[in-house]
Amino acid sequence: MTEGSQQKRVVVVGAGWAGLGATYHLAKQGYDVTLLEAGPYPGGLVAGWQTTAGKSVEAGIHGFWYPYRNIFALINELNIHPFTTWTRSAQYSPAGLEVESPIFQDLPRLPTPLGTFIYTQFQRLPLIDRLSALPLLYAVVDFDNSDAAWRRYDSVTARELFKDFGVSARLYKDAFEPMLLVGLFAPGEQCSAAATLGMLYFFILAHQADFDVVWSRGTVGEKIFRPWVERMEKAGAKILPKHRVTDLIIDSNNQATGVVCGNEVFDADAVIFAVGITGMKKIVANSPSLQSRAEFRNLYNLGAIDVLATRIWFDRKINIPRPSNACFGFDATTGWTFFDLNALHDEYKNEPGTVIEADFYHANQFLNWSDQEIISNVQRYLTTCVPEFREAKVIDSSVVRLPQAVTHFAPGSYPYMLPAKTSFSNVFMSGDWIVNRHGSWSQEKAYVTGLEAANLVVSHLGRGKPTEILPVEADEAHIQVARSLNQTVRGLSKSILPNFWLP
């Protein structure tokens, strides 16, 4: 290899969806990529691991929704088969079953959002309450994921949004807030209205089939990340767990030349950060280079949410109507989900008893409880939903506490979330909390931002080809017309009325 064609070195920090996505593409393009992960294995919070007894556990179950076009394309490229078929889900409250969802793609497609309203089977919610959501469609149309739309809605709470648009108190309490508790992981008064509209549109409202979901047939680490990492390593990537980044080395040209991990330095022609808010704040706390920039100091205006993941083995088979279930109303500020792993995971298909994963979001009040208190509480909640759990005995269990684990899209947080490009010319950001215009959320957004960061490196260093990023499915025709008309009216209003507030 000649001097001019010497491999360019890229250091990626964080081995979740974003970091793995960036590493994979850059390795395929011939870069010398080193992926640094603070934890003991690649995959971050989504990976999963085995207990000393050889049982699989993970930091919560993660679904893969119909609009995850880029992740599904990756799975096809890797030629692996990690997913269940499309599954139906249910929703419970302390009063019992509240909602059952069909597999929407199997039903005649109606213009959005009619399919969501008509095909979803509400057990108790009166039609008059459901109809009170119709005025909210204006906000859905008005929020187009642009910077201006984020600034309009970000300082407003989700609760204010629903109240101001006339959503009934019952519809908010029994439908929208439960979606927030398991979608944005916080109650409505603690969620940005902008994030709420973005999340609801991507997962539920944009197209009828968007709420359909599949699940990994084992831990994501085993079924997806392990074969993916093997492919990366064959392409030449170096993946180093147990490497906690403490600083960057910045030269006089405003460029990072190295990444510091304690006493080790990894030389770099470009750097991609792919860690969550909590991890990024820890890096900034140790890094004089990052602390020198306001954009990184301001990350302390952002927060994260506590999660609790439990896995319980019961002594008998229990009939659970749906494999995935969301629950609300058991605690005022906490949502939770439970999953029938006998139905979802290959290793439990022939288990003589029942294996349940129950995950709690915004679980701060539970983290200090003992494992026994937590497991007893989970069994009590499960019994409310499926009475057969009352007689079952717990024969094994796992409790994983995850303080400050997932992004909190709090009101007023948008101005402090970073874009992919930073004030260091060769340092790029990725992750589900990074500002981008793609429109996706959660794991799909993290993966997409990893690809976007990789493309910025390719552009900056001038080697290789950018990867194709599949856009979200286009808005339906009536939504496109409504958004175009709304933008026209907004433009006219701006030219006539004084601009007292941000757009």
From TrEMBL:
Taxonomic placement: Bacteria, Bacillati, Cyanobacteriota, Cyanophyceae, Nostocales
Organism: Anabaena azotica FACHB-119
Domain Amine oxidase: 18-457
PANTHER family: OS04G0560500 PROTEIN, PROTOPORPHYRINOGEN OXIDASE
Protein name: FAD-dependent oxidoreductase
Domain of life: Bacteria
Signal peptide per UniProt: none
A Pfam family of this chain: Amino_oxidase
